[in-house]
């Protein structure tokens, strides 16, 4: 048997990545068109993506796996934003969180179909439910680290319960954004970002001492 060359291995990896991306994009397109996740079959995904059943199962364990991987990409986008935000940066102040929330809302709106499917399926699919919980826990951890860091340097009051505050910011903010996107066509995005900004900044990061 001829050994697999590095070039062949690289070509195979690229083809596999392209196949995964094609299948994931297909599911997202179906969800964006308004089709409920529960009514989309693997066969439908296969037909729309133009891949064989064997190829599909060579890359995914099922349609839930496809959705979990889609949400994984969204999680990384949101985590990158959360980790990049620095309250002590030169551009800091109360306007930084507003821009952060505007970007968060834009990501949620751009992937509304996927996030709606996650919320739908999380109640009955353990894999999706666990993935969704893990995504929010990762964001919670990132916000908690920033709050604790700010408390260490004295910018955030020591009396703030950072654990409770980070939970409210992340878990409550996620629910608020989801509801907003469901009832607002986009004209209110800036206002929601501004109010989340004020609640976050003055309610936690720069809360008056002793309150």
Distance between the termini: 73 Å
Order of helices and strands: HHHHHHHHH
CATH superfamily of the largest domain: Tetracycline Repressor, domain 2
- Largest sheet, if any? none
Care to give the gist of this entry?
The protein is an all-alpha fold and 211 residues long.
Secondary structure layout plus pairing:
Layout: H1 6-32, H2 42-49, H3 53-59, H4 63-84, H5 95-110, H6 112-121, H7 126-152, H8 162-183, H9 189-205
Helix pairs in contact: 1-2, 1-4, 1-6, 4-5, 4-6, 4-7, 5-9, 7-8, 8-9
Structure description:
With 211 residues, the protein is an all-alpha fold. The protein folds into 2 domains: 1-60, Homeodomain-like (Arc Repressor Mutant, subunit A, Orthogonal Bundle); 67-205, Tetracycline Repressor, domain 2 (Orthogonal Bundle). 74% of the residues lie in helices and 0% in strands. The protein has helices spanning 6-32, 42-49, 53-59, 63-84, 95-110, 112-121, 126-152, 162-183, 189-205. The longest helix is centred in the first third of the chain and has 27 residues, at 6-32. The protein is elongated, with a radius of gyration of 21 Å. The chain starts with 5 loop residues before the first helix and ends in a 6-residue tail after the last helix.
Please supply descriptive tags for the structure shown above.
211 residues, mainly alpha, Arc Repressor Mutant, subunit A, Tetracycline Repressor, domain 2, elongated
């Amino acid at each position: 048997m001829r050994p697999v060359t590095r070039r062949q291995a690289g070509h195979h990896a690229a083809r596999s990545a392209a196949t995964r991306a094609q299948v994931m994009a297909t599911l997202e397109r179906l969800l964006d068109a308004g089709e409920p996740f529960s009514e989309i079959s693997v066969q439908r995904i296969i037909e729309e993506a133009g891949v064989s059943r064997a190829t599909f199962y060579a890359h995914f364990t099922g349609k839930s796996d496809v959705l979990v991987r889609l949400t994984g990409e969204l999680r990384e986008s949101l985590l990158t934003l959360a980790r990049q935000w620095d309250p002590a940066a030169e551009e800091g102040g109360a306007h930084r969180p507003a821009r952060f929330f505007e970007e968060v809302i834009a990501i949620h709106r751009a992937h509304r179909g996927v996030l709606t499917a996650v919320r739908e399926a999380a109640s009955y699919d353990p894999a999706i439910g666990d993935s969704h919980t893990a995504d929010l826990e990762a964001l919670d951890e990132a916000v908690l680290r920033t709050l604790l860091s700010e408390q260490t340097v004295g910018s955030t009051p020591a009396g703030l319960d950072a654990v409770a505050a980070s939970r409210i910011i992340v878990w409550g903010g996620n629910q608020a954004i989801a509801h907003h996107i469901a009832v607002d066509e986009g004209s209110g995005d800036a206002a929601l970002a501004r109010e989340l900004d004020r609640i976050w900044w003055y309610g936690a990061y720069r809360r008056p001492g002793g309150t």
